């Protein structure tokens, strides 16, 4: 799914308001996509009931958990380095236990215990409810593993503990897993089959967030457009579902509408959309509700039809253009971002030029760009030779990054000398005199704090910009406030 968080960034230690008396100390770090950060909030919730109190100091921890990412080799190397660090601390504090969660746990399974001898606990993304039992086993001196994938688990009944939160924006997961089987991607193997969460529990979580003062929710899934609720289980079985189930089913456009109506003052975003699954009724629903933000993360991966086919993407370059044209027709001010991979096996210079020309057509507001990294077990690894030299992958990546920089500047400048509505999220990283927030289109806006506060919706007159940030002055509260 979309990397809302930069995968290369350092994981963040998360703080949990836990029990104080007799509690054990948990240090939990997350790497990778937004879904991992969201999952860590579910883990924190499960463990808070077991009396775990979090610490930001690794040295103080009784239990260290790392929520891991397998999407590229580099992400796994980062985690291995962290494991070495944890083990160095464990040598001083032998009572400390170390657990690996998430995609790398799922991919490597017991190999972690056999090869690495660095961890006590290995838990896949669908097994977090088993953590209390697994920790009990570890307490008895055993190693513990649960990497069973589920066709039903959505954690819909767990109320996440908001960790490291700004109190304004939150993630709410709506689907888990992915059935698309893009040939480069390890996600279908690590996160299993696609399943949707009960809309009722989604609405309850959203209402609860609003009551706690949150103002913006991003609905999360590997492929949000394939959201379909008709009572649980696999979507494939929908063909067999009864007429009543079909009549009462909820698709993604309907879910968006339910959310937008439930909290009309709350902003809604979603991620990730898949070109082959995104339907125009989603775009039309976005147009009908002011509180659904006009921003779509729409990964394309490549601009070459031949490469798209080899990637098992179910859309062509032309299909993608048609979708972009429709989005622009229905939502003229909608911004679009992308994921692009350079150097997929067999990619020629002509294929690469197709990617650059596709970018020129769309002029994305921003994007996440990666050199192809072969992942064990994927179709691409089994059937195709990783034949593009690293230097070529990197050079093509740089060309894509440079072009994106140009387009980002072009898109950001479109908001210059205008008044934009901003939701204040936090203090600007560069100045404690300024607030940072985003407009509806997800562009970062920075402006002097004056008398405004975190969580306010304000109108900001923009006066300057860099390629990715608007700079301006607040001219008053917006009507949404
Ligand atoms: N190599 C490089 N990038 C990848 N992605 C997924 N798998 C790989 C891989 N093997 C990228 C895709 C996806 C994003 C989350 O990560 O662009 O959309
Ligand atoms: Fe991976 Fe493709 Fe599923 Fe995205 S849609 S998670 S890239 S398999």
Describe the structure.
Helix content is 33%, strand content 22%. A hairpin with a 3-residue loop joins strand 21 and strand 22. Helix 9 (252-262) runs parallel beside helix 10 and helix 13 runs parallel beside helix 15 (390-413). It has 3 domains: 12-146, 3-Layer(aba) Sandwich (Rossmann fold); 169-413, Alpha-Beta Horseshoe (pyruvate-formate lyase- activating enzyme), CATH 3.80.30.20; 419-477, Nucleic acid-binding proteins (OB fold (Dihydrolipoamide Acetyltransferase, E2P), Beta Barrel), CATH 2.40.50.140. The protein is globular and about 65 Å long. The protein is built from 15 helices and 22 strands. The longest helix has 24 residues, at 390-413. The chain has helices at 34-48, 73-92, 103-108, 111-116, 131-139, 187-190, 199-211, 243-247, 252-262, 280-288, 305-310, 317-330, 349-362, 379-383, 390-413, and strands at 12-13, 24-30, 52-54, 63-68, 97-102, 121-123, 144-146, 169-173, 175-176, 195-196, 216-220, 228-229, 250-251, 267-271, 295-297, 335-342, 366-371, 419-427, 434-438, 444-448, 457-465, 469-477. The protein has 481 residues and is an alpha/beta fold. 5'-deoxyadenosine binds at residues 1, 3, 71-72, 184-185, 299, 301, 339, 341, 370, 372-373, 375. Residues 1, 178, 180-182, 185, 187-188, 222-223, 274 line the site of iron/sulfur cluster.
In summary, what is this structure?
With 481 residues, this protein is of the alpha/beta class. It has helices spanning 34-48, 73-92, 103-108, 111-116, 131-139, 187-190, 199-211, 243-247, 252-262, 280-288, 305-310, 317-330, 349-362, 379-383, 390-413; strands spanning 12-13, 24-30, 52-54, 63-68, 97-102, 121-123, 144-146, 169-173, 175-176, 195-196, 216-220, 228-229, 250-251, 267-271, 295-297, 335-342, 366-371, 419-427, 434-438, 444-448, 457-465, 469-477.
